[in-house]
From TrEMBL:
GO molecular function annotations of the record: NAD binding; oxidoreductase activity, acting on the aldehyde or oxo group of donors, NAD or NADP as acceptor
Signal peptide: none
Matches recorded under SUPFAM superfamilies: NAD(P)-binding Rossmann-fold domains
Organism, as annotated: Pseudomonas reidholzensis
Residues that span the membrane, as ranges: none
Annotated ranges, domain Semialdehyde dehydrogenase NAD-binding: 7-108
Coiled coil region boundaries: none
Record's protein name: Semialdehyde dehydrogenase NAD-binding domain-containing protein
Amino acid sequence: MYLTPQHVLLAGATGLTGEHLLDRLLNEPTISRVLAPTRRPLAEHPHLENPVGDPAVFLPQLGGRVDIAFCCLGTTLKQAGSESAFRQVDLDMVVAFSKRAREMGARHLLVVSAIGADATSSIFYNRVKGEMEQALKAQDWPQLTIVRPSLLLGERVEPRLGERLAAPFARFMPGKYRGIEACTLARALWRLALEEEDGVRVIESDELRKLGKK
């Protein structure tokens, strides 16, 4: 069954995937409102509401009802500066955003995790992503879609050196380990948003590539 959301909440709209997803959402004729809180202002659009500032301040103040929520928040350990700062973004902020989205009426949450997410992993990054997934499952969403892309490909406003170095190799990796274009991931997220399937779905990168090309 396919649904047509009209009121959307989006976190991470200034990131690589979030930018592509925002552009798609604002060009969908069925969507009347996109609420996208950010730290820096976005370009104005008649269907966009863009609270700007500290998420800790504006998150509790977000108002209006939403049908669906997308979470594209994410950073790197280098950008965050410490493990605790990384956890604040990739775990705490994601969980807080998702909780607020549920309070605003959203029944479906789509969240960008990462390939290899595992709460028991010895790798810090993978472990935090796994803990984030567990925390969202505990929120008891009617519909929760977790996507696990491999290395994201595309031009960022703030380039990540590691991604640039790995990108040429990631394009030739097998199966779900092959890199995925951020625009492809955004298309896959929108396609998944239109599907109604109660419970938790975990979509790996190879399937995301297929969904994003259709």
